[in-house]
Write a structure and sequence with these properties.
The structure is a homodimer of 189-residue chains. Chain A is an alpha+beta fold. Chain A has five helices and 14 strands. In chain A, strands 1, 2, 3, 4, 5, 6, 9 and 10 form an eight-stranded antiparallel sheet that branches. In chain A, strands 7-8 form a two-stranded antiparallel sheet. In chain A, strand 11 and strand 12 form a beta hairpin. The radius of gyration of chain A is 16 Å and the shape is globular. Chains A and B meet through strand 4, strand 5, helix 2, strand 12 and strand 13 of A and strand 4, strand 5, helix 2, strand 12 and strand 13 of B.
Chain lengths: 189, 189
């Protein structure tokens, strides 16, 4: 079941460095791309930083709308994550092409991808010179959601491999988020 | 054995979103802290972006020297990674306190932590307004190294759990980098 994540916990969705799908929409057209160069930037209000390369269709839509969403795909979605990262939405509707169903954002007008582990709705904080020189966008997280099968009470609780988040390596390969180590494991033991 | 990683492959050390140890040195004093909010920013020349909070001793040393290094700790080092992220180097020498041995950077005057999976020596690209407003540093990777037991020929090749990189969750808990999924698994099969 999809649950709302309090904004004070939003950065916990990104601390472990997962690869994301960036969704965007402007003037009735939507797009989805994969991105590994995304991270949390601040806790309160929660902010993120994301590299969105010049010339991509996503960049065009995000510049027009001032919004995007980060969707955390699972191991079951590794193939489609690679596929949407390898083609441009200018030529084709990647949602239709890859059978990605969506639901609407609650706060920004951007589609969110069904089947993901978590979602962050983001509003761009304009930094034009940084955007032009580094392809880097800053954004405030204005709503966050998670699948309570894997994230609840402010914590990731991964089980089956297929439901884990993924971390890009190169060329269509990803690491699954692995087992927990460190003090939390000891506390649970 | 420690091998040099060609700069064109340097971003591959960070694509999967590992938590790092940030080492720094200025005027003869060195420090180490943990950071999860670090990512690749560009391929060529390779650049990184890292959040280094105001008020930290690392911030002071990095501002003075214009350099830092990113060290990728392993599962075996999860405890010490949490420990150096929970105390300030202003009060104590965290290397001595936690038994962290180092070797000198090849290109920047910063110590690198022995036992890590990989290392990136970085020179700050000054962006004062971004640093002041977001605690964010941009840096060019000027040398990169890896332990060839886990990274060789441009690829991660993790085996035993203890040698894997880690991904911060919260409060001393980390995920190990997990198994490989996606097309590379199929290619290897």
């Amino acid at each position: 079941m999809r649950i709302q994540v309090p904004l004070r916990h939003a950065t916990r969705l990104l601390n472990h460095g997962p690869t994301v799908l960036v969704t965007s929409k402007a003037e009735g057209r939507a797009n989805v791309m994969a991105a590994a160069w995304v991270m949390a930037l601040d806790f309160d209000p929660p902010k993120v930083a994301a590299v969105i390369a010049e010339g991509t269709y996503t960049r065009e839509l995000v510049e027009r709308s001032g919004a995007f969403a980060l969707n955390l795909p699972t191991v079951a979605m590794a193939g489609v994550t690679h596929a949407v990262g390898s083609a441009s939405g200018r030529e084709e509707d990647k949602f239709a092409r890859h059978g990605l169903a969506t639901f609407p954002g609650s706060t920004v007008d951007v589609p969110l991808v069904l089947g993901c582990a978590a979602w962050l709705e983001c509003r761009v904080v304009p930094e034009p010179s940084i955007r032009e020189r580094y392809d880097l966008f800053f954004a405030e997280v204005v709503a966050a959601w998670a699948d309570d099968a894997v994230f609840s009470a402010g914590r990731w609780r991964f089980g089956d491999l297929a439901t884990r988040t993924i971390h890009h390596v190169a060329g269509g390969a990803f690491f699954a988020t692995g087992e927990i180590v460190g003090s939390e494991r000891r506390r649970d033991a």
